[in-house]
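tl;dr need the bound structure. longer version: we got a ligand (magnesium ion) that a collaborator sent over and nobodys looked at where it sits. i said id run it. heres the input, straight from their email, havent touched it
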Amino acid sequence: MALKSFIQVHSDSHFPIQNLPYGVFKPQPGGEARPGVAIGDFVLDLSAIANAGLFDGPVLKNSDCFVQPSLNKFLGMGRPAWKEARATIQKLLSFDEPTLRDNGSLREKALFPMNKVQMLLPIVIGDYTDFFSSMHHAKNCGTIFRGPENPIPANWFHLPIAYHGRASSIVISGTDIIRPRGQGHPTGNSPPYFGPSLKLDFELEMAAVIGPGNELGKPVDVNEAADHIFGLVLMNDWSARDIQAWEYVPLGPFLGKSFGTTISPWIVTLDALEPFACDAPKQEPIPLPYLTEKKSRNYDISLEVEIKPTGQEHSSVVTRSNFKHLYWTLTQQLAHHTINGCNLRPGDLLGTGTISGPEPESHGCLLELTWNGQRPLSLNGSTRKFLEDGDEIIITGCCKGNGYNVGFGTCSGKIVPAPL
Amino acid sequence: MALKSFIQVHSDSHFPIQNLPYGVFKPQPGGEARPGVAIGDFVLDLSAIANAGLFDGPVLKNSDCFVQPSLNKFLGMGRPAWKEARATIQKLLSFDEPTLRDNGSLREKALFPMNKVQMLLPIVIGDYTDFFSSMHHAKNCGTIFRGPENPIPANWFHLPIAYHGRASSIVISGTDIIRPRGQGHPTGNSPPYFGPSLKLDFELEMAAVIGPGNELGKPVDVNEAADHIFGLVLMNDWSARDIQAWEYVPLGPFLGKSFGTTISPWIVTLDALEPFACDAPKQEPIPLPYLTEKKSRNYDISLEVEIKPTGQEHSSVVTRSNFKHLYWTLTQQLAHHTINGCNLRPGDLLGTGTISGPEPESHGCLLELTWNGQRPLSLNGSTRKFLEDGDEIIITGCCKGNGYNVGFGTCSGKIVPAPL
Ligand SMILES: [Ca+2]
Ligand SMILES: [Ca+2]
Ligand SMILES: [Mg+2]
Ligand SMILES: [Mg+2]
Ligand code: NI
């Protein structure tokens, strides 16, 4: 029989006892930030569980890793700590276990209705890297900007391309995104355009949250890379296409990206995703040995993007994609990132790049969906080439199990006007 | 008469009482990290001065900003705190002031011979950005890679181009640099090259250390940008040209840079550099209004790069350049960085890009000095196209005042072999 919690969980919930994703929250405004785990419509306060002495396994017994305003310390402890925490929490929440179930005063202290708490960035992010691992996205962007002959650069099939992103402007789901101002291509002999971005876009991504990491100069083997990944979040890499197009030669994206990046509050662990692992696409040519893994795995995670224009009652689904479409795996990304000796630290974030699938309706950004504005999308009566002020973008991600989901909740943000 | 300290300072020292650069040090291995100021051959321990109650001005009186393992808290306090600290320290160290001069036990606690202490990274670096602000460097690189017609991209004269760098691998002067491994361009139908970089290079740079910074969504005005810059350090942006050349299309440099970046330990403040301010080069075309400043200023800072091959007794000077050659000013870099709303935080690092001057001997990297390996440099009998294992690179920077220097000391690092 399936594992079940004494807390009632709807069958369509993203957060049954099989999931147990980690976040950081404040029970009320002004309260102290602390780690928590989602269970149904509740958040389990891990600092309360730790203070009650219920993390009693050998790794966590005397640790203060859950009495912290971020998950970084716990992430740095690695897989033995993660396994033990998951086992302890799953047991505590299970239907047959009286410890928490029958202790009213502890339940009072440790369980908060999710709709009452404030979710925060769960990690302190030292460095944020964004990859470019969907072949469909690379092909579409290349076709739009350079034409249909050789749209994908020669290096793309040999290495997981990436750039360093801006860590300071990563925000938690629900934070408004201020439309950036910046320069765009000049027309004729005029000076460059300057003003609010005219081509504001979302990018449907997921991101890996790094665990222990590695010392400078010591690469991580691709077959051991999974031990350095704690879990995944949903990510929206907001992009100003006009700013990006003008600035990116020769050093890559900068201000076209750095005004804001949104992540979802719940980190779903690789342990919870394990039942949804699937084979990654076949790679041709075969990558160099440092990128060749014994087993190349993706996860079957359904992803959706909705746009909700201001004043409209309903949102429109504009993208249905899946994590399994990624060409380069998370473990290949991580091995490549460290092959030159670059050090990763607990809490670092590795974005996958826009996750586009093969079908037109699975394109992960408006640049692709509207073919750079040439084919406007229709949304419940209005149309969109790019995002307008007031538009809210809602990303969801979910794995469908047998009678239960392992979901990510949502990653949302609303565009507000540029400063005058 | 010139300001003078009771501590004897050689006339060729970089650290007279006119300078007073900030760093973080441990008096002995295993000791606690704390902020200090360089004076001649000594380090003044600011935690000892603070604990003695000698920061008694209105801003710093009750602050613990000097009882910290980094300068970030002090940086975040802004110019009023910086001015007050400088005035207090300059007075305490001055020839006529008995407070410290005549207090033997305080001197014992607060002054350490510089050659006995261990210098550390002075700041926790949230984000590191590298600009591309030398026209000579942009022109040389463009000519080498794309030929002499239009070597500088069209956007270059309209905006200070930059990319996000890797913060985790920034190390303090004196740290060995492990030769990175990585992929290089395939030849013919072979797979890409994989192995230790064959084109390892230095880049002569300086970097601005950010003070208070700005809120997400609130750009900094170019005419107020100087208040957000605490001071400058020397920087060596080590670069693997073969890795960089193969990976950088279309998202910019990544593993070709992220294996290590070295900074000098002493942050020289803008206040100390003020006497060496000079006009920046005339800009044509005139930049957009958000980049147009009332006064466009550089600093006259002489820069040198020496290479010391392993086993050779003497180093050879390979570059003599100057900070004043930069086309885009620090304040323009900062205003551009924030114009899209991107937030800067205390301790963020903004590299200038390679500082090449107009003459061939002022080229700031081997790529330019040897014209991508085509014209080897001669060094005391040996030659170099790119760096070899055992080579030590030593960057120095110094402003020449009337009878005194305001210097940066050195920024050095030695290449050690790649892992097997
Ligand atoms: Ca992206
Ligand atoms: Ca550089
Ligand atoms: Mg972004
Ligand atoms: Mg570097
Ligand atoms: Ni001396």
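gonna send this back to them w/ a short note. The mean pLDDT of chain A is 97.
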